[in-house]
Amino acid sequence: xxxxxxxxxxxxxxxxxxxxxxxxxxxxxxxxxxxxxxxxxxxxxxxxxxxxxxxxxxxxxxxxx
Length: 65
Prior knowledge:
The protein is of the alpha+beta class and 65 residues long. The protein has one domain. It contains 2 helices and 4 strands. The protein has helices at residues 26-33, 41-48, and strands at residues 2-3, 10-11, 17-19, 22-24. The protein has a two-stranded antiparallel ribbon. A two-stranded antiparallel ribbon has the order 3-4. A hairpin with a 6-residue loop joins strand 1 and strand 2. The radius of gyration is 25 Å and the shape is rod-shaped. The protein starts with a strand and ends in a 17-residue tail after the last helix. The model has no long low-confidence stretch (mean pLDDT 77).
């Protein structure tokens, strides 16, 4: 028995996968090999909640004429 190099789960010698220099379990190997999804431009802007994508707030109350 050996341990996964990432999550430290016990795996047998035959069930381990080698990725770069680590022996990984199947779940960690799939995570390491899968492509990372990049955020689209609008999802990025929405995630940082910038002022230019929020609607402008109307001032209420006393206004100088």
